[in-house]
């Protein structure tokens, strides 16, 4: 049974800054590129063709859009001690896509957690480390801008590595 997830892989001109923080604070930095998760990892025997048809149907009216990220937020909780890069423009589009994808075919995989679009910079193993990472990353005044025109589906490999199995271009 495959574990898949659906994500946006934004390309910023200043990606090196994101890589700098992720390399320090995100244990997944070597396994998956910087991303915004739309559908969280789910296990299913569903065919890739069926999943791709779902995405094509749900995304047919979504046009490319711009996002802007700036500033960080810390999110401690039972699932981890996360450091997020905040999405300050475009999050309503991301939230809309999240809701569309979790309707119909993927509805059963939606968790009860509130969804806040973000890009993960870190997941720390203690609150103290999260606080230190937050203070460090808060010094960054960079703004990150990108046009989102592709939604990707990945399979998570046995070692946690990301393997892109399909990409869906948003219609112009």
TrEMBL record:
<protein>
    <submittedName>
        <fullName>2'-5' RNA ligase superfamily protein</fullName>
    </submittedName>
</protein>
<dbReference type="Pfam" id="PF13563">
    <property type="entry name" value="2_5_RNA_ligase2"/>
</dbReference>
<dbReference type="GO" id="GO:0016874">
    <property type="term" value="F:ligase activity"/>
</dbReference>
<keyword id="KW-0436">Ligase</keyword>
<dbReference type="InterPro" id="IPR050580">
    <property type="entry name" value="2H_phosphoesterase_YjcG-like"/>
</dbReference>
<dbReference type="InterPro" id="IPR009097">
    <property type="entry name" value="Cyclic_Pdiesterase"/>
</dbReference>
